Predict the structure.
Amino acid sequence: MNLSPSSADEPSVQWAIAIHGGAGGNPAKWEDRKRAARKEGLEKALSAGKAVLESGGEAMDAVEAAIRVLEDDASFNAGRGAVLTEDGKAELDASIMDGKTRACGAVAGVTRTKNPIGLARLVMSQTKHVLLAGPGADEFAEEQKVPLVKPDYFLSKFDNSYRRKNNLAADASEPHFGTVGCVALDQSGNLAAGTSTGGTAQKLPGRVGDSPIVGAGTYASNDTCAVSGTGVGEEYIRHSVAYDIAAQMRYANRSLEDAVTEVMTQRLEQGVGGLITVSRTGKIEMQHNTPGMSCGAADSTGRFDTHLKLAAEPDAGEDRENAERVIAAIIHQQASDWSDGDLDAFMKPYWRSDNLTFSSGGKVTRGFDATLASYRKRYPDKATMGMTTFSDLEFLKLGDDAMQVIGTWKLDRDKDPIGGKFTLVFKRIDHAWKIVHDHTSLLAK
């Protein structure tokens, strides 16, 4: 699953930021309370990082600010919400890296530090080392006078109440998945990345995953990109995932999207985790091969969105004879996203450009933002969106990189079910099929 918010023909942005709150289970199976808590936490963290970048602040400060918010939120597996080891204790890991200098710092197995990401940054700035672990890291935290907490601080109210209400065993890992992380590009063109985690539930005491390992779970370099991972840490270490993405860009001249896709589909097995990345030009790429990944992104163009999962997008870089299959899958995924009430996911295949055209009821709307606003106005909630289906697809090739699709749409809902015909024009942009024109007509009742 992936999300590519910009295409190659779009200009570089002034600043950009992406966050994640862990990859794992399907959010459709969560309680409303849990989904709401996750969304609220993501929005707060993204806002904190955005505020730093908007005001001209540094990428390192934005990364730390966003991750601190997530560490303080008990609904994420980092800081306060950390899961416990086999012997019932919290051992936390974190790392941070400056893309300008490649300076980095990390801590592993800390037990009393309220915000491990801040301690990791102090390892970077106040010592000659990169990684401190265990009792030594705890002693360093005391020396640096960072906020310390008692161990029961990590036995979060969110976690305990969730277990009691759902009668879960003490070793259940819900509601936690993965880690938290942030990548950012500031207005000076500097990149930074950070990752923080409570590890995996019921891990062996002393187990360390990829989050504090620079090059595995975290990496940033101004000549390529910034990366933060989430998932099964051992696999990210084995494949040097974060560094590998930057290496593909640096030595093989691959695009950020291609490098991330290569790792997520070819190097890592399905169900392992996800990634957030931002390039030196501000292109954000987020992908996961798990049912869900809490994440969000913002940039200087006004973008601000959060997700509990990203819509599936088949690979559009396949041979031409597979184009119809790929585009049909995109259209059917749109129907699924619409029926789920997820308008942002539904809009993902549309061209994020002022040249996108949308025609409905004799009115032509131009531009991605205007088209999205039009949809939001006409379909303000899930009840008005209803359940949609697309059928009777017919394809017409328009050159080597374009396809016209004609079909039938139906919208089933309690009040005023409707339907009609649609015509879509897809164009292959930056290795992905994007809708550049959408014409919808309404059939007479």
